[in-house]
Amino acid sequence: MTEVVPGRPSAAARRRRYTAELTGALPPSEPFEAWLAAGGGLAPDFARLPARTGLWSPVEGLPAGPDGAAAWPARRAVLRARWRRWLTGDLPPAPRRTPARVDRVRTAGGVEVRELRVGEGWVGAGWSVRARLLLPVPAAGVRRDVPVYLLQSSHGTWAEAALARGWGACLVSAADGDDDTEAVERAFPSAVAGRLAWRAWALSRVLDALQDQPGVDARRVLVGGHSRNGKTALLAAAYDDRFAGVVSSSSGVLGAIPARLCTDRHFGEGVELLTRHYPGWYAPQLRWFAGREHRLPTDAHELLALAAPRPVLVSVAVEDPVERVPAARAAVDAARDAYALLDREDALELALRPGGHRADGSAVAAQLDWAQSVLGGPPRRPGRTAVAPSPVPWPADRVRPGPRPVRGAELRAAVRAAIGAAGRTTGGPPASGEDALRTPDGVAVTLLHPPDGGSGRGLVLWLGPPCAATGWRAGYEQAEPLPALLAAAGWVVACHDPVGTGSRHGEHPGPGSSPLGRMTADAAAVAVVAAAATGHDRAWVAAYGTGALVALHLSALGAGPEDVPPAGMVLAAPSCGEPLLRARPGYTLADLLAATADRPVVVLDPAWDPEAPPRAVAAACRAAGVPRVPLADWHRLSAATRAVMVDWLDVHGSRRDPV
């Protein structure tokens, strides 16, 4: 029995409160609501789950060396249990023997095609999974077992590429539009699991069948997939040690991308969007973690670790709005601890490719190059890429007011010490274009005009979170983008890609600078260029998340003689756990807010924010005397929050901005 402390809510009371908060804030999702109506249960007791905004080592607590390696199987069982409980649900155990038959064999173009029926005839089972095994026809009198690329049936071109390398391929009917696992699920009514877990289970059953197929080297079966199929491939390898390796191509959140590092506040895929658009992929209870991804007891880096010590390739496109390159790097770095424990540190590899979500022929060829190096020839040992010293995150304890105010020249000096000089960026010059509006440093400026054109009612500088793939154009969104809403309301809106994002994804702050230093300098320069182009003598600021911190640092530094002063600012969720600074700041959010006293400013403060301690932003606003609007929501830019920002500018901008 749980002890009840007087004056402290019980676990059941907390769960009811969390349930009410989330059901009031979550966008409608009929499958989730049906699950709740059927007795799906209350939200978890988040207060009892560790709060981790960053990643931890999957082998934390294990000793180094042989003792740690010997303890890995037990740790792996714990990690698998976490994934089953919180994400995938429970699946039937593997059968002692999986029946399989060959329905048809034909040969065409030097390829033998075997149509397999896997599972049919299993005692008590009313299901089967179809698989098409493709093997190169050997020369007469030659018997040769080849490695096989195990894929879902939507990856026919991948199979052709494998055959061209002399590999075999196996296409399994466990994909969108061709999914035999729906019948599998009906055959096991007591097992409750998400669709991707069922597909992973089906891949393992096909692997059972491949053990007995002539011409197949069953010790070298590589599982792979793209997008949702990449998630499935990782699950299959995590739960089944027999797969020789895995290719995860653009697998997104809870594939190779940690949910806590690619959320609504990053304009990423996020748990809310994932569970609303694809409600059947995971167990229904995952939706409770929308906005509280930092309380999720496991994450994608532990899924990657579950494949250790087998080779894993994580392929990520730098302009893919589903993913974030920084999140992919963090996941691979954290999971590599498990590989290092088993003396296979280089078996886990991150490969970045140009372009968006699609994996074209060159991407598939690169994946097969990697596969041949790790499964078909001498192991490849690429050197680790040198990593520059990491910037300092904006610390949560700097959100609350400090022991004494920091104002005026002292604040400006402290800000310069924390963000460093603006400097020049490295990693190549920005893209050029004769017709583009640009700052002196070459940063492209996009102006969104009102529907009737012209300079509109005023100028708004949009500062959002750095969406790595798409820059100022947020990737996955839940509503009309805020810059477009503001333009429709009659404003000219100035937008630009922050350093390291969108068209500038190859750029990095130079020595002595920091991401926040570069972002602040760019914002000031963009305002000057936009004002000159539109005829406005000042700019209003609409900012969210990291962008709100940029706006506050811009205000704290003060406007120079050539700068355009901010007329006022509407700031949503001014907190961020991203690595932004050159040094730990000697000031707080309250100090930054106090520097805005000479202009209208409002802070929109979400009810729960993993990047800020509870009530800390409210305390900072009180200390600075800045108005605060509480939001019954989490750290995101929902349609309701966008409407509040547009309305605030409508009221204050109509009074204050002369043209």
From TrEMBL:
It holds the Pfam family GCE_fung. It comes from the Bacteria. InterPro entries: AB_hydrolase_fold (IPR029058), FrsA_esterase (IPR050261), GCE-like_dom (IPR054579). Keywords: Hydrolase, Serine esterase, Signal. Residues 376-405 are annotated as: Disordered. GO terms for molecular function: carboxylic ester hydrolase activity. Residues 192-342 form the 4-O-methyl-glucuronoyl methylesterase-like domain. Belongs to the AB hydrolase superfamily. PANTHER family: DIENELACTONE HYDROLASE DOMAIN-CONTAINING PROTEIN-RELATED, POLYKETIDE TRANSFERASE AF380. This is 4-O-methyl-glucuronoyl methylesterase-like domain-containing protein.
